[in-house]
Amino acid sequence: MIHLERLDHVAIIRVDRPERLNCFDYPTLVELKELVATVRREPDIRVVLFTGTGKAFSAGADLKERVTLNETEVRRNVEMIRDVFADIARLPQPTIAAVNGHALGGGFEWMLACDFRIIVNGALVGLTETSFGIIPGAGGTQRLPRLIGETRAKEMIFTAKKIDAETAERYGIVSRVVPTVEELMEVCLAFADEMLCNGPIAIRQAKQAIDQGLDHTLSEGLKLETAAYETVIPTEDRLEALRAFSEKRTPQFQGK
Predict the structure, then answer these.
(1) Catalytic residue among 5, 73, 129, 220
(2) pLDDT band at 160, cuts 50/70/90?
(3) What is the pLDDT of residue 159?
(4) CA angle 162–168–172, rounded 5-degree value
(5) Residue 124 and residue 68: Cα distance in Å, rounded?
(6) Which of 32, 55, 59, 235 has the CB geometry, 3.0–4.6 Å to 21, for a possible disulfide?
(7) What does the CA dihedral 231, 202, 216, 146 come to, rounded to 10 degrees?
(8) Considering just the CA atoms, what is the radius of gyration of the chain in Å?
């Protein structure tokens, strides 16, 4: 149901349930959680890309499964999807959501858990949970307001409306809209290559400083930045960059 592909230093995790619009049932969530743990443990993976198969990125929770569950099982599923997306948000590597089609409900929360979101033209996104008598339960009520502001987030959640790719870009939800699915992966991999040119330890430390600092005051965040900087000072990558500068060549970072 989920595939992991390696392209040099990039891991591509693809949900492959096109017949169910890549909805998340419990076994899919368990498998995704395991794969996220796998890429976390591999220092040679420097960028992680998430996408779906077919015409949807993900339509969220599998409602056909959901109607068969009792309340205890519903709570289990909601806890699992919340934990999986939190694991994605906490990955030390930069993460890219290659949004190949509609991203609704939990599918939208999945892309919100990523650092960057690049979307194909024609896709619709939205938090549609209130139209089913529930609320976003996998981070949507928290990540979306932090991304686009309280008022727009409340509008999207309270109305359960779906917005198109261009509106998502205008709101600041996605960083780029591409014309076709074929171009989507090319654009995402090219963006990954831009990051791969730089020091992998430095990028991980920069991500940590940014993510942790957002939950603190500026003065506390500056202390986090200082600690992150201290981590990169003794690295071989830093010395390699200085040598490369002196020798007027491109540095060859090893992640050490």
Answers:
(1) 129
(2) very high
(3) 97
(4) 140
(5) 28
(6) 59
(7) -160
(8) 19
